[in-house]
Each structure stands twice: as C-alpha cells, then as structure tokens.
Amino acid sequence: MIVFESAAAPSVKTGEAEIGGRRVAGRLCPYIGEFLTLRFDPVDRRFVFRKLAATVSVGPADPRPWGEAASRIPPGPVLIGPGCEAEEVRGALRAAADAALAAGRPVYLLDPDPAGLPEEGGSAVVLCSWRPGGRPAFPDLARASEAGFRCGVFFPLIAGWTAEPPVYEALLAEAAAGGAASATALSPESDGDARRAIVEARATVDSEDTDRFFELVHHEDWTAQLPGQFREVREACARHGLATLPPRPVGRRQPAGNAAAAARLEERAELPEADEHRAALLHAAVRWIDESRRDLSAVARDGNFRKIFPFGGEIAAEAEAAFREAC
Asked: How far apart are CA 274 and CA 270, in angstroms?
C-alpha cells in the first residue's frame, strides 16, 4: 500500500546536477518516495522499480513556501519532479512549478502528471523518462506537448537491448510522433547494483535470452561499445527530426540571449570531439553565464565581451560566437 504523508516544508536540493547534458542549479522535489511504474531515472541514470508498499512524503500545495525554497537555489535552471499520480489531489508539483516560474526561474519539469502542468505552457520544458514495456513508452509526453510545452525524452543505451536499432528506432519514432523536440540517449550507471537492475528491468518486459543478456551485462565489456552506438543513435535522431539534447528553458527574468548562448555551449560540451577538460571548461562558462545578471548579448554587440569573460582562448571564442548567434 502507498501511504502519502504531508511534509512540514518543501524538499530542496541545492547542489548542481546535470541531466542529459543540461546544467541544473538545484532541484525541488514535490514527492519523495518511489511510487511510479518501472522507469529509467535520467538524473541518477538507474532503473527504479515500483514498490508494493511505500511512504511518499508530499510537499505543500501552497506556492509560497516553494518560492522561499527556490530562492535558496543558485542562479540557473531548476528541476522540479518527478510528479505523481496523486497530483490532482495533492497539487505539490503544480505549486512548486508556479512558484519557480513566478520567480522568473528557468524550469524543467520531470515526469509531471497532467494535473501538475502550469498554465504557462511556453515557459517550462517537460522531461519524460522511459517506462520499459509501457504503452506508451513516454506516458507524460503527448499531454504535455498538446498543452504547448517543449518536451524532451530520455532512455538508456544498453548493449543487447536499447542499443539495438529496432528498439531505439521505435523509441525515437514514438518520441517524434508524441511531439518531442529531443531524444537523449544516456549511458547508464554500471556498478554492480545498476547492472543487476538492468538485468531485472529487461527480464520484466522481455523474457527472451535472459541468460545471454545476464552474461553480456555482468561479464562482458559492453560499455566499450557505447561511443559507436551513441554515434548511430545521434544519426537516427537526425533522421527523425529530433535534437539530442533537451531544449533549455528561459526564465521570465533571464535575458534570452544568455539562455541561448548557455544552451549552445552545453551542446558544444557534448560533442564527441570535446575532451573531458574542454567539456569542464565549457560547463564552467555556462555556470558563469547563468550567474550573470547582465544581458551579455548587449555586451557582445558592443565588442566588450572578452573584457569581462573570465575564460580565454578557444572557450572565449566559443562563448562570443554563441552570443553573436543569439543576437
């Protein structure tokens, strides 16, 4: 049995995170506790299984305490969710989203129940996780897209399963048909617990060749195949008209040029040729842009961008080019 308990205060995580190549400055969690069907969590990059009995901590339905919680998160996009099937009664995700949007924050909504979608359809970006064996595979996608939200979907790339062309082609086709702007394949965690969860998740939805799949996941170096498989999936995304990184939201109090330039730098950091050091510098530049309170497009137009930008060399050139495109 699932028991819902009201929390005394909102749950907020202020540490920086990354989801599908996009920076998240912090997270608001309207519901704490596992309650959804089998899904792949794009933040932790692990499979999550529904528990037959669990207690779910529910945040307030009043936006005001969520606004105070959001104010403790550093500048940059805020991730809110996942949602819950009890949203229509509890209203916690909608309250958190309304508060963050009213504060002018860029907002990602993770797996929101339709009842939790805010009225500002163009402001937030909806992120949908994959539900293996589900019909549809991304159950929150169509309703969010029909409501006017830009959407992105996520799924893990696993040899012998989702890395097979028939599987990922079907997922990409469903994402495109559902109105997604992007489909992001993720590398799942590969520690012992994560590998066991991968095997269990596949066995739940597909009982064929389970012994062979077990051997592949636990005893073969299947992660070494991922770079080539990611390349194939990126090419397939292009055929389906899908970006490989989710859209980046723009807060009402954030200069649009800053958001566009930050998005471009995040995309450059995800290119195959971007080594770890270069990617880290690009992400640091994104953080600096997010934290700037100035309209940096205007600074770039005046030719003064490199005077204030704290990075030099190729990173400065990339950032300046990003702002020129945004102007």
From this structure: 7
Q: Are 249 and 125 in contact (CB under 8 A)?
A: yes
> Do 5 and 35 form a contact (C-beta atoms < 8 A)?
no
Nearest to 120 by CA among 96, 147, 143: 147
pLDDT at site 75:
94
Amino acid letter, residue 317: A
What are residue 41's DSSP bridge partners? 46
Phi and psi, residue 115, nearest 5°: -65, -20
3-state secondary structure of 276: helix
User: Which one-letter amino acid corresponds to residue 116?
Assistant: G
- Alpha-carbon distance of 317 to 327, in angstroms, equals 15
Distance CA 138, CA 141 (A): 6
Q: Which amino acid is at 314?
A: E
Spatial CB neighbours of 321, under 8 Å, sequence gap ≥ 6: 264
H or E stretch including 69?
helix 63-70
Low-confidence ranges of the chain (pLDDT < 70): 34-36, 52-53, 121-122, 326-327
Return all residues near 262 (Cβ < 8 A) that are at least 6 apart.
Answer: 23, 248, 286, 289, 290, 322
CA distance 82 to 28: 9
